[in-house]
Amino acid sequence: MSDDTVFRMEEALARVDHDRETFQMMIELFMEHGPKDLADAQTALDAGNAVGVARSSHKLKGAILQFCAPAALQACKELEESAKAGNLAHGGQLYALLEQEFDRLLAALRQVRDEGIAA
After folding, report:
1. By CB count within 10 A, which of 33, 108, 110, 111 is most buried?
2. For residues 8 and 68, is the Cβ–Cβ distance under 8 A?
3. 12 half-sphere exposure, CB direction, 13 A CA radius
């Protein structure tokens, strides 16, 4: 992985005892479910539903945590905390940052999936 700032491959692999097959499965699951969780947060944000934003953000945060992706994790935490406080005034900005970092993580994971994991 050339861009260590998106996610920390060694830490993420250590979470699954360096089982590359399990890690590839985690990537596939994240690629399948992550975009839906992100879209759910956007839908809740559009509806002004702070509880829904917090719930979707929390779910997504758990998935991002597995990949040791600090920027995406921080963006997700900020959106979740703001929503839990019932403050969606900056929700659009926080969501935009999360979406940007989510897309970076997704691209990095897609690259790992497509190229495989170096031994």
Report:
1. 108
2. yes
3. 28
- Name which of 105, 103, 69, 98 is nearest 81 in CA terms: 98
Contact residues for 61 (Cβ-Cβ < 8 A; gap 6+): 73, 76, 77, 80
Residue 11 · residue 68 · CB < 8 Å: yes
Structure tokens at 114: 């497509």
Q: What is the pTM of this model?
A: 0.90
Separation of alpha carbons 79 and 96, rounded Å: 10
Rounded-to-integer distance, Cα 13 and Cα 22, Å: 9
Domains of the chain as residue ranges with CATH: 9-114 (1.20.120)
